[in-house]
Fold this sequence. Notes:
Layout: H1 5-15, H2 21-27, E1 33-34, H3 35-42, H4 46-58, E2 62-68, E3 75-81, H5 83-110, E4 115-118, E5 124-126, H6 127-132, E6 144-147, H7 150-165
Helix pairs in contact: 1-5, 2-3, 3-4, 5-7
Zinc ion is lined by residues 118, 120, 122-123, 137, 139-140, 142.
Amino acid sequence: MAITNKKIEDTVKEVIGEDALPIVEFLKEKKNISEFIIAEKTKLDMQSTRNILYRLHNHNIATYIRKKDRKKGWYISYWTFNKKRIQELINKMKREKLDKLKEQLDKEQKNIGAFFICSRACARLDFDTATEFEFKCPECGSLLNQQDNTKTIGNIKERIKKLESAS
Ligand SMILES: [Zn+2]
């Protein structure tokens, strides 16, 4: 399946940060571009450019080779965007989110009707923790009310279904 620009953008934003977008945008369809060219074309200073490039490299979103500049005698890195890594990251994040939601769902289902919330909504505690605080809100001291969590369960199930059907 082809990766859309939107997916690339969203993934880079989530994994690396918004500041990496101009570099990714520039590198996307190119290969082996010198770090100096990248800085020049994105109008970033060398330090920021290198910082972002190494963050991209840490997640294997960009790879580089180093070559010695014959005239100047120092090494220059040449960068390539690793497009196929984006889909891997999307799959990985999806798995992680699903795991987390399933864990949450499990907890809710094991504690049906046994959650307690503060009337001012500052806290939501399970039965054991609520007992510990003698059914008073640890934040404001208001009495805690038993909460029907079937709605929460429905919401989590809905989110799992949506995530599972997303590609
Ligand atoms: Zn409270």
